[in-house]
Amino acid sequence: MKNILIQNRRIGYNEPVFIIAEAGVNHNGKLDLALKLVDAAASAGADAVKFQTFRAEQVVTESGEMVEYQKKNLGKVESQIEMLRKLEFDESWYPQVIAHCKKMGIIFLSTPHGSFASVDLLKDFSVPAFKFGSGDLTSLPLLTYAAKLGKPMILGTGMATMAEVKEAVKTIKKAGGDKIIVLHCTTNYPCPSEEINLRAMQTMMKELNVLVGYSDHTNGSQVAVMATSLGACVIEKHLTLDNNLPGPDHRTSSNRIDFKKMVDEVRAVNIILGSAIKKPTESEKKLLVIRRSIVAVRDIKKGERFTRNNLDIKRPANGLAPKYFDKVLGKRAKKYIKRGTLLNRNLI
Length: 348
Description:
N-acylneuraminate-9-phosphate synthase activity, alpha/beta, NeuB/NeuA, AFP_Neu5c_C_sf
């Protein structure tokens, strides 16, 4: 599978996992919190920090209702548009936040959550890739519009059937987009174990002919580690500065300590998986002496036949290998062999 370059970072199955810290709307409409989220993502070792670009009116109509997890996490009910107005990433923030990301050595990304206008805005700020949330997987005109700009495109696939995912990928390719990463995810916050279905990620790897990763909405780091072990080239997970802050996503996001733990564990996966070639490691080469050899267990006279009574298999391993034991039986000793001698071909 062809690798994809996002800014200065190569993404592919033979590359280190690309980790996205989903800051989302956890800035609560405050620039200082947005900058602190950049710091937290960078210090945790994420490759990118992602926000959301929208004006509330671009996302939902006045009659749109909050979804159940938002009602639960906020502890109140209001219209979705009222909630979103408080969570907008102000246009004046972009130069400062992008500059801060550059200073901290982390890639700035944002989801064009406000449709065509958001794509245009992010293009103007030279954001290196477009990440579309699961809710826009079926917004085929929007995907076409963005694909024509030639940037890498990352797609969330929560709530989707395989047919819908294939249709989105086909739409992007038809518009000229050839740098596609699809993320398996479940749109439930937090996602219970019985709804994760990581095997679906493997199915997408087999059938889509694009890079595949995982967007994690579960608690803890176990599933992100498992997804990485199964081959995910991208891991995305929500990040918050404090789970007790007001807002729809804080309670189900990872705090700084948990996010750093997840990053460290995901990074360790590639090290642990290591090489696909089965061979002794450097440390094992020093331990080969614990293998065994064919050895004389009593004195053997010249011309005497080798039998199970005068031979056995013992350590160390620098004599004739045990696999020759049955072939040696019945042959004769070429000369006197003292008890405890490791057999070699010159003695047979």
